[in-house]
């Protein structure tokens, strides 16, 4: 079963502030554990929303409305993702629970979603 662990962005990550060396080390260790277990398919960080473009499909059959970043709502920001292939939702949840706070400073938020 394929699952995506979506890392929500924060004001710090959107500003391009790098994580502390301790957090980088913890994230490296977590990723190494995923690779060693053979469940990590891919893990990538994303550029800030200021480099993004949003296309909104407002009316069927019409061209989408195009909006350049940055996005205004912090709840709309994403900082990265990890895609992993596991045997069950429970196993995906176990891996999600092992992830360090991806933003540090008590700002981290992740979302676990199954891929079709």
Give an overview in words.
There is one protein chain. The protein is of the alpha+beta class and 116 residues long. The protein has one domain (2-114): 2-Layer Sandwich (Alpha-Beta Plaits), CATH 3.30.70. It contains three helices and six strands, in the order E-H-H-E-E-E-E-H-E. The protein has a four-stranded antiparallel sheet with strand order 2-5-1-6, covered by helices on one side. It has a two-stranded antiparallel ribbon with strand order 3-4. Strand 3 and strand 4 form a beta hairpin. The model has no long low-confidence stretch (mean pLDDT 90).
Q: What's the end-to-end separation, in Å? A: 9 Å
Arrangement of strands in the largest sheet: 2-5-1-6
CATH architecture: 2-Layer Sandwich
**CATH homologous superfamily placement:** Dimeric alpha+beta barrel
The number of domains is 1
Helix-and-strand structural type = alpha+beta
The largest pleated sheet is described as: 4 strands, antiparallel
């Amino acid at each position: 079963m394929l699952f995506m662990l979506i890392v929500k962005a924060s004001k710090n990550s959107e500003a391009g502030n790098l994580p502390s060396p301790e957090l980088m080390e913890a994230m490296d260790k977590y990723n190494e554990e995923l690779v060693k277990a053979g469940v990590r398919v891919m893990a990538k960080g994303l550029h800030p929303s200021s480099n993004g473009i949003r296309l909104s499909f407002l009316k069927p059959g019409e061209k989408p409305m195009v909006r350049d970043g940055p996005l205004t709502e912090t709840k709309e920001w994403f900082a990265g993702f990890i895609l992993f292939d596991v045997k069950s939702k429970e196993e995906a949840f176990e891996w999600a629970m092992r992830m360090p706070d991806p933003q540090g400073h008590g700002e981290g938020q992740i979302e676990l979603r199954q891929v079709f």
